[in-house]
Design a protein that fits this description.
- It is a single chain.
- Helix content is 21%, strand content 49%.
- By secondary structure, the chain is an alpha+beta fold.
- A nine-stranded antiparallel sheet has the order 2-1-11-8-7-6-5-4-3, with no helix packed on it.
- The longest helix has 27 residues.
- The chain is elongated.
């Protein structure tokens, strides 16, 4: 009887060690972007004014504890060349070329699904806490990720844009959509 108990304990201990090792390997996996992506903003103003800016430039970095999404702002397109130039000038892209979101990996649900998470958004040289909503749909080893947040650009030291007396509101919707694999 004592031998059976020892075997049982050895089996339970071995199973626990294997589960811990498996969990550690999964936790150590890192995201890498795959396929196409899109990021951008939507600003609104008076009388139904709506400005959409988009870029397909986006990178995802994962060091095992923090997921960093970086969007180079130099290629944002709004559909009007002059407005593209004004947008980049207003964002001072030559000085502040990227927008960046850093999120603790532990704050994200990698089983697929949706949720709200907190991160740090860096824009125009200023870093602020931000809450964002995301949906992560898993298919095989790939996640289709869609995230949105709303920021007040004045809080990042960006003056509210205006052209010929018509301006947009300082609250701007930001989004990012990408596919990533957990390597």
């Amino acid at each position: 009887m004592e031998r059976n108990n020892r075997s049982r304990y050895s089996f339970v201990g071995g199973a626990a060690a294997l589960a811990l090792l498996t969990f550690s390997l999964v936790a150590a996996a890192k995201l890498s972007k795959t396929g196409s992506s899109e990021a951008g903003f939507k600003a609104s103003g008076p009388a139904g004014l709506s400005i959409d800016g988009k870029t397909s430039d986006l990178t995802v970095a994962d060091d095992g504890t923090t997921v960093t999404i970086t969007v180079p702002l130099g290629n944002i397109k709004t559909g009007i060349e002059l407005r593209d130039k004004h947008t980049k000038d207003h964002l001072e892209v030559a000085t502040y070329p990227n927008a960046e979101l850093k999120v603790a990996r532990s704050a994200l649900n990698f089983g697929g699904g949706s949720g709200d998470a907190k991160g740090k958004m860096k824009l125009h040289g200023q870093t602020r806490d931000v809450t964002f909503h995301y949906v992560a749909t898993k298919s095989g080893d790939t996640f289709d990720v869609k995230g949105t947040t709303r920021v007040n650009i004045n809080e990042y030291g960006i003056k509210t844009p205006s052209y010929m007396g018509v301006g947009v509101k300082p609250d701007v919707n930001i989004f990012a959509n990408f596919k990533a694999k957990d390597n």
